[in-house]
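User: Can you fold this complex?
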Amino acid sequence: MTVEDILKETTPAQKELIHVLHRIQAEFGHIPPDAVDVVARHLRISANEIFGVLTFYKAFTLAPKGEHVVTVCLGTACHVRGGVRIVEEFERKLGIKAGQTTADGTFTLETVNCLGCCAIGPVVVVDGEYHSLVTQKMVDSILDKYRAAVRPS
Amino acid sequence: MRKLTHPDHLAEWRAKILDERPARTKTIVVTSGTCGQASGSLQILDALRQEIDKRKLAETVGLVVTGCHGFCEMEPSLIVYPQGTFYKKLSPKDVPAIVEETIVNDRVIPALTYSDPASGHRFSRQKDIPFYQKQMRLLTESNFHIEPERIEDYIALNGYQALSKALFDMTSEGVIDEVKASGLRGRGGAGFATGRKWELCREAAGVPKYVICNADEGDPGAYMDRSLLEGNPHSVIEGMIIGAYAIGASEGFIYVRMEYPLAVKHVSRALDQARKVGLLGPSILGSEFHFDIHIVQGAGAFVSGEETSLMASIEGRRAFPRQRPPFPAQEGLWGKPTNINNVETWANVPVIVDKGSAWYAKIGTEKSKGTKIFSLVGKINNTGLVEVPMGITLREIIYDIGGGIKDKKPLKAVQTGGPSGGCIPAEKIDLPIDYDSLVQAGAIMGSGGMIIMDEGTCMVDVARYFLGFTQEESCGKCVPCRVGTRQMYDLLTQITEGRGEAGDIERLEDLAKTVKAASLCGLGQTAPNPVLTTLRYFRHEYEAHIADKSCPARVCKSLVSYYIEPDKCIGCLLCKQNCPVECISGERKKLHVIDQSRCVKCGACYDVCPVKVRAVSRLTGTSRERIQP
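Assistant: Here's the predicted assembly.
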């Protein structure tokens, strides 16, 4: 699906902007900078406005993410149960900081401020799959699971 | 299903649903909200389906997949009706035994039942478990019986009857009067009187009018709105339609944060269903009232939970708050009168209309009516969502419902209200909980997050955590919040890293005052609360960090050293094997030593050292001197 296909299904109004950006992000894994002008023309707003919006919200990125996105929850409940240690262990194992992507493009490491499943914290979500009561020891095996998985083409 | 074009059609449909319900001897209800699924409920469901198929029981045994039942700690769990037998922490291999024993032979399997951590007593029926006994589940009880993706289940429980009553037996003003008389206050945090808010919007000039459901539940540690939307989306939708009728709104929006994909799915589905049968759209139930609801997904910004920011976000702009007045009731979405309420507030509306304001106003305290859902998390035995009448004490919530503190440790504090709230110390455990008592104690009700902390929680670290959160989520529009929270966060970081100086506490208080007074929106105005309440009740901990360079709870890394006591170490290798940076040396049955220069202070060695040995110590303050060169 191209950006034009996505826009075909939306009315040309600014209120559709965040919805459109979500769909582009889902389709391409990021917001390709070239798409911004196309969206701007369709919604009849400035590219400047769109850059403002997409850099404001955490959901959108201009740079491509890794094949697998590791999200570590740092909500209050996960924090008091040691979520920070889990992030640090991922940082050590992947050799990157939270918010970065590994050089080979396999993993992106992110943190989130509460996924609302506080009973099973610390929680780590990889590509939408939840891992509960995560300990530092489990970090390696979690990563291995996705290292082995080949991305469907 | 044909469209409902007359109020009688609703009752007819309900009768038909009940009539066509297959007669089952047993029904297995599996809780499968987000936490249920994360704990493995889907595997339990697969195993149950296979087993039921294998034994050809599909005719007589029903399988119901519901949203969250609130007892998150025990998931994956299920209930077998009509007995109400509750089984907890299941694995797929328990399933054949459950079907054989409980379904076929009608016997309880004691090993799978709940055992109370305080008394050790086992409870086989869900209703008898202390966690549920003291609750009053006005809004959440239906979660036991409703498949969120089936509108029929909601109808069967008298769903949309309150809407029918409002549309055909009451005037718009009558609905507002009823909500006013009920004493319902906004469950989103501030506690503004809901009926009055509706009235202001109804009286405002301008068309069209809008209603919004704020489901941007961003407070870390709070997830009651998610549970309502996931488990019983129609109750929120019904509340919104009634509200729209009372206010005279023609369009509604549900703004859901993007971190809740399952809620988005269930709400979208519920909206489609309601539209299909004529409960949304033109001439609802054949009346002259037209109304529809759209779902809008957030994009990951905490500030969009603030009402003016949320509206900017719906309009497709950056979620910047703006000055009030004008309030949304006068100038809201696209400049039109708009009423915005939180998920839980909307879900209360059908209950009030159905049972009447007099009945509702009997629940709770003088100025806080009804029930409140809290998410009980942190160092508590029974983590979960609890719905309790206003006015219940913290003690009842923590010990009777929550089963006490993990590992029987003493309670230190309870944090309520998320980043806008505060910490209530253990001494105030007999405080009856309502909007006003919490404010007096320095905290707020907020959306209902309740984080239980034991002695292993450092209050300075907690304050720093929340300031880090608000600082990162500050939208940057106004200086007091953008710069002030940053300065406060830096000061707190300094203190937790042992670089605190005399006068830092006063500087924090000074900044807190400015940020509170001068910030544009609720985010900044309340951001200093976690610091102010911890200073009010735990000032000595700040002083210990600054003056003695010690962290009494032994949490702040820079002030703590891990050390293996030579006379206690048995050389079991556990700490060495678990050290993520391999900085522990030693052989089997020989003393292990931590290389302090390489230690990252993750605490893994402390956690794995056997309880009977306790050779790894956490040292802070002057006690660290003995290991420093």
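The longest helix of chain A spans residues 17-28. Chain A touches chain B through 47 residues (CB under 8 Å).
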